[in-house]
Amino acid sequence: MTLEPSADDPISTAARLREVATELFAERGYAGTSLAEIASRLGIRTPSLYNHTRSKDALFLDLFTEATAAWSDISRRALDGEGTSAERLERHMQASLGFATERPHIVGLCRVAVTQVGNELADDVEELIERQRIDYRQRLVSFFDEARANGEVVDRPTELLVSAWWVFLDGLLTQQIFAPPALRAEIEKHHGALWSLFWRGIAAEPSP
Amino acid sequence: MTLEPSADDPISTAARLREVATELFAERGYAGTSLAEIASRLGIRTPSLYNHTRSKDALFLDLFTEATAAWSDISRRALDGEGTSAERLERHMQASLGFATERPHIVGLCRVAVTQVGNELADDVEELIERQRIDYRQRLVSFFDEARANGEVVDRPTELLVSAWWVFLDGLLTQQIFAPPALRAEIEKHHGALWSLFWRGIAAEPSP
DNA sequence: CCTACCGATCGGTAGG
DNA sequence: CCTACCGATCGGTAGG
Fold this sequence. Notes:
By secondary structure, chain A is an all-alpha fold. The first copy, chain A, has eight helices and no strands. In chain A, 71% of the residues lie in helices and 0% in strands.
């Protein structure tokens, strides 16, 4: 009684294409990934890929668009919601790191997009990155403006607090993605403690 | 009265090859950089490159080896030397960021090496990265052990302090390299302030 | 440092 | 989804 796109293929080729291509782009970069390799992993011939995508560029852009949407969704939900600023920001951190842990190839795809901007990838990618960056920045500005107004964080310029958070998150994600598995597990255990040191750096002085 | 390798070429082709190749590898990745493009920028034909290198792999490994040596040299000198732990660590940060600012392509080359490990690049690269990582880690452990013994930092496990620093530095470098120039300049102005927030997070409680 | 050239692979098309 | 094929480009070699 299940819906099947075809008799002997419960997972559609289109879906598997997305999975396989995301993984390869993430691990080998854009230029390092060939359509032949993607097709081979799907058990089909290279030209058959063109039933699912217009070109290699279009495939990458499509996957990247989906990736940023998923990322943005997770991150927004965690930062919004109830609680103190510390609770909300820690939840946001845990969500971002959880996302990176569970779906490392999606994060890897984003990294590839960022590092290869202006070279072989289309302007569309650069535009999408910039839009996401601006959107995230605005959400952070709102968050820290509110936290300052509540006296929850140190009284420094919002811009600075945004930068501090961004640096911290970028560092965590970098280690999460690039560190060798052995080191990664150790760092993962430290997330809570690293958070507390970060927050200690920006938290308001205890009122006397 | 100057020493010239050839009459009309004051900067040797070998030296220009290193410059050009570093820049291209950093900007386009390993697979995205062709020997033809390198040769073209040098004004010579592709086969002529083989007078200066054995293969594309060997060229990359050679440049990467030089890059890590330069990096390690700068970083070691800044962290050693005199002063309080805070002074030494801030000096180390400034040196690392200065290096990244002045020689962005060298840092980009390292990033490419790290992100493409285990794929098209040789095991030699992975080995070199791992050796550098271990070496840097040991220097940080010594540093934070001493800082803790002096009561200069909060009394938490050295491993945690090392992680916190590493995350902070990785985040700064990531932003330095990947942020769009407009944002980069703003962040650069914040380095000192970001440092003070970081240090505030790990500094020892003021004695009562 | 060059010309001439190699087999392999690239993204992509024609036509079914 | 396939076979058959395209021109372009890849890293690299022979020989001078």
